[in-house]
Every structure is written in structure tokens, then in C-alpha cells.
Amino acid sequence: MPAAEAASVAREGAVLRFSGALLRDAVAGLWKQAAPQVAGVERIDLSGVSSVDSAGVALLAELGARAGGTPVVEGAPEGLAELRGAYRLAPSLAFSG
User: Fold this and answer.
1) pLDDT of residue 73
2) Among 22, 46, 70, 97, which residue has the fewest nearby CB atoms (within 10 Å)?
3) How many domains does the chain fold into?
4) Distance CA 54, CA 32 (A)
């Protein structure tokens, strides 16, 4: 199995742009980078993300909640749809009850 692509995050205006694989091993480092930048984010861009696991979804959901408002999530990496369904998350990754 090939190694997962290294994950990264960058703030570009009102967009928080992720790339790589958002997997458990990368989440702590991504949190440290993204949390201080999340206020006012209007979009979370996942178009450069190859895959996401449950830890990655938890990271994205928490960042979305802390952004203030409801950021639009763009992109559909491998694993996202299944995990959104399993955790009953809206397309914005907010809990939908």
C-alpha cells in the first residue's frame, strides 16, 4: 500500500484549503496550523484532499463549528460521504441530528 500523501492546510482569504490525506496521524499537526486561522472562514476546500478518515472528519467538523457561521465544504475526498452518513453530518459537516 503506498504511503498517504502528506496533509497540509493554508488560509487563502476566506478559504481554508486542505490537501493530502486527512488521516489520524496528520490531524494533530493540522489542528495546530488551522485552529488559529479558522475565524471568519467561509469555505473549506477539500478538492486537493485524497482521502479522509473519522479523525479527519472530526477535525473538519470542529473547524467548521469554530469558523462562525456555516462554511461551505467543497470537494468530496474518498471516505467523506460514508463518514458523513455514519455520523449524521450535514453537507457543511454540522451535526444534523
Assistant:
1) 95
2) 97
3) 1
4) 18
| 75, part of any domain | yes
- CA dist., res. 93 & res. 87, Å (int): 9
Average pLDDT per consecutive 10 residues, the chain (97 residues; last block may be shorter)? 74 97 96 96 97 96 90 96 94 81
Does residue 6 fall inside a structural domain? no
* Residue appearing with cell numbers 473538519: 60
How long, in residues, is the chain? 97
Q: Examine residue 69 and state whether it is found in any structural domain, yes or no.
A: yes
79: left (phi over 0), alpha (psi -120 to 50) or beta: left
4 within 8 A of 51, measured Cβ to Cβ: yes
Q: Which residues contact 55 (CB under 8 A, 6 or more apart)?
A: 22, 23, 24, 27
* Containing structural domain, residue 59: 25-40+48-92
